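Record minuted for completeness.

…
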Amino acid sequence: MATEIRVPTLGESVSEATIAQWFKKPGDAIKADEPLVELETDKVTVEVPAPASGTLESIVVNEGDTVEVGALLGQIADGAGAAAPAPAAKKEEAAPAAASAATIVDVVTPSAGESVTEAEVGEWSVKVGDVVKADDTLVELETDKAAQEVPAPVGGTIVKIAANTGDTVEPGKLLCQIDSSGASAAAAPAAEASAPAAAPASGGSSMPPAPSAAKMMAEKNISADQVAGSGKRGQVLKGDVIAAAAAGVTAAPAAASTAPRGPVSADDEVREERVRMTKLRQTIARRLKDAQNTAAMLTTYNEVDMGPVMELRKQYKDLFEKKHGVKLGFMGFFTKAVCHALKEIPAVNSEIDGTDLIYKNFCHVGVAVGTDKGLVVPVVRDADQMSIAEIEQEIGNLGRKARDGKLGMADMTGGTFTISNGGVYGSLMSSPILNAPQSGILGMHKIQERPMAVNGQVVIRPMMYLALSYDHRVVDGKEAVTFLVRVKESLEDPQRLVLDL
């Protein structure tokens, strides 16, 4: 009786593999669980063990062939005395396997929000074999809105990492597996066959590149010593070549030194550092450029005397902080002033949808925050219904979450207008770019004492330049100027905010 050798399940999104090499040939005696053939996918190599002892009767696919999951690879003929113990061995192994499966916990890509359908895998904080505690950070995912840390749902040992840094994953996609039993020493070696792990460069490997990897290196003019292999014994896989090409490795070092890109000299190129753009940074770049290309963007300017607001802060800041548990800053006043102006000039609080204009009868104000990963814009929802104290509390909460990388998609979506404060970095004047599909963005700047004419006399006043960038397709010049004047009036007479004037 013959036993079939078939392609095993290779992962949630992997449907085919390439035959890398056979370890046995027809006629060879084999033992149960002995490696027979090595399969290569875009990301990992997997050794297929013998399902039973006997003699390798036939091989039906050759090295370099591509096969689908479940495809027949070969057949094993029962050897003398091998047939009887084989079923017993398999039966005995079934129980531990079932017990082990119960302790394996899948960690999958979490849902990141209604409008987010994918994320990019950032840096892993763990590797196969590491012991983790519940809530330890495993990996950071980068979406087009923010970075999100994925915590360990249970304590245990990492036995499989299913997604490499730079991979794009959808919600529900397997990221890694944790053995929560605490006894996973036996599982770790098996996991290594299907987990990306640090490996020496292929130049120091005794394994030749996988067939598909070798083909791709030839196509892209990449030499083997330019690619770090992640396969067994440092073998270069197709995914390694894809990663190297994405990182800008497109020619052998010798060619690069004789043909430097553009005007950059070879000496300068050695001193350069090439890093992968995060998905967040790529999206920031794309969205800002799209806004410039799409909107009829125009900016109008004004200036505001910040003296009244500063005096009000100075008088009440201690009492305000004692009562509300948050410091009285400028953003509360600016957000409230913007909400008043949006109510009067609704065009600034609208957006274009095809040939329609959508007027928002609510004020979700985005507050641009700079982080080490890039610009993010968390949203203060229904800011028009909040007091200045409530706005300050919410901005403080969102700011902390932004710095800690804890912002969720619910914190980042739905804004109808944006405020950007370049003044915290010392900017005196700038023209902010729209946060599409919004039709307006207010730029705050540095407060600087300047000589001003007041009632016929020159006095020194703390002044701030304001800039309103708007979509001229939606907002007329008169509306934009009026909006900015209303913001100025509210800030120069903050009692208007209290009296809703």
Q: What stands out?
A: Confidence is low (pLDDT under 50) at residues 80-99, 183-204, 252-260.
